[in-house]
Design goal:
The protein contains 4 helices and 10 strands, in the order αβββββαβαβββαβ. 21% of the residues lie in helices and 28% in strands. It has one domain: Alpha-Beta Complex (YbaK protein). Strands 1, 4, 5, 6, 7, 8, 9 and 10 form an 8-stranded mixed β-sheet that branches. A two-stranded antiparallel ribbon has the order 2-3. The N and C termini lie far apart (37 Å). β8 and β9 form a beta hairpin. The longest helix has 11 residues. By secondary structure, the protein is an alpha/beta fold. The radius of gyration is 16 Å and the shape is globular.
Length: 172
């Protein structure tokens, strides 16, 4: 019930959101499926932009990054590492993900930065962030999605203690 920490935080700070419950999803390409009033599966359409989050590591310098982009974008990791002045990116391990953000693979979300109390993770946000509001992220688990206005999301990140570095994320 780790998500309770997030929901309590949002309530405490009067941050508005809409909650959508659905089947667990592990990639941004998957459809969101929920049950209708008759218990039948149906596709859930969530308004706005669905985001994917990459938890990356610069192995040479032992620096971690959470990179957030619209779900349809294919990130060019080599070009991104050059843009950020890093040597080479790889995906961080599940152990590192849990160590820093207290979540499991498939549930990566900027909201987990609330657990990075030592501010070891660099938060990088794609410049196309506000193209199609609302913005949608998992609330620390992958069977729910939170939708909110972009400004409410940025306010949430500020209250957590993170100001994202907003840049052009190179794509393939």
């Amino acid at each position: 019930m780790i998500e309770k920490v997030l929901f309590d935080f949002l309530k405490t700070h009067n941050i508005k959101y809409e909650l959508f419950r659905h089947n667990p999803v592990f990639t941004s390409e998957e459809n969101y499926i929920c049950l209708d009033e008759n218990g039948q599966e149906k596709e859930l359409v969530i308004p706005g932009t669905q985001y994917k989050n990459l938890f990356l590591k610069d192995k040479k310098n032992n620096i971690f990054y959470l990179v957030t982009v619209p779900g349809e974008k294919r990130v060019d990791l080599k070009a991104l590492s050059l843009a950020l002045g890093s040597s080479h990116f790889s995906f961080a391990s599940a152990q590192e993900l849990y160590e820093f953000l207290k979540i499991q693979p498939g549930s990566v979300t900027p909201f987990a930065l609330m657990f990075d109390t030592n501010k070891k993770v660099n938060f990088i946000l794609d410049q196309d962030f506000v193209v199609n509001p609302p913005v949608n992220f998992h609330p620390l688990r992958n069977d729910m999605t939170i939708g909110m206005a972009p400004q409410d999301f940025l306010t949430c990140m500020q209250k957590i203690g993170y100001e994202p570095k907003i840049i052009y994320i190179p794509v393939k």
